[in-house]
Give the backbone structure.
Amino acid sequence: MKRNNLFSSVTSWATVVVVILALVHGSLSDKVISVPAYFPNINNDLTRVTWAHAVNSRAKLNASLNDDSMMIEADILMGQLDGSPPGTNPIPIMGHPPQTTSDLSLEEFLTTILKSGKHKGIKLDFKSKEVFASSENIVEEVLNKPEADFPVWINADVLPGPGNSPVVPVDADYFVRTVVKKFPSAMLSVGWTTFINNQIEPYTHHDIGNMTDVLSRNSVIQPVTFPVRAALAAKSGALLTNLVRSSIPGTSLTIYNSNSSDKVDMAALRDLIHDLGKDKVYLDLSPEMMNELNQKGTGSVLSSASGLVFASIVCLLCINYYN
């Protein structure tokens, strides 16, 4: 009798814990300002989201605020503003390695967007732990303002991935823990460093396992987006599809291409997008790649031709039958 009571008690507590976790997850998910909610005209088709890339200068920022892009992507590193006196301490500036100077600081970047009142989202790509640690208070102050009612993504490559890249990942636990704690309205975007030499290596179960371990031990129970390199993603379709489907609802891939010389299997990439669903895939690609991706590949043409042949045979059989 006591065992039955104990079992009932444990079961009841387990149910309570599950309910509490579900409520917490729902609460955190509601705080995140999502892209499809902010841009309802895309009808939940994430592949329709448009991007302004490497907005790391005043000129590019002004241009992106007045064009038809939806998301403004920018890189942050430690450096100095143009014209700073020698010996000036480095600050978070907008730029991509190996840059060390810029005419735009992170603080000015965020303030300009906030004051513009434009209907834009932003993606902040941090290149090192040092710059992220120096930036977190700046970002937190801006995101706490009531005008900051737009999507904000906080991104970094936090783990080594395919190709043994020489780039040092941002400290995974520090980055993830800080984003979850300080920026509850932001989308966590975490990826892998990659390198392509002579051979394109796919993402592996080891890569995926390391990432899910980071999220688990830092108690991430909100949607995330995983940035994946197009050439590698095309070779990892089943693995990436399973990753997203087994994650928190609202989780997505962001397929990007950082090097125009990458050889991308467009048919395989097209299959990945189709299998996962356009409500779970962002495409941060060049216009040329988008055009190629939207064209029907040879496989599709062959399938259509096979369908026509099959239909013709059926018609002939029907004619012979009724005659």
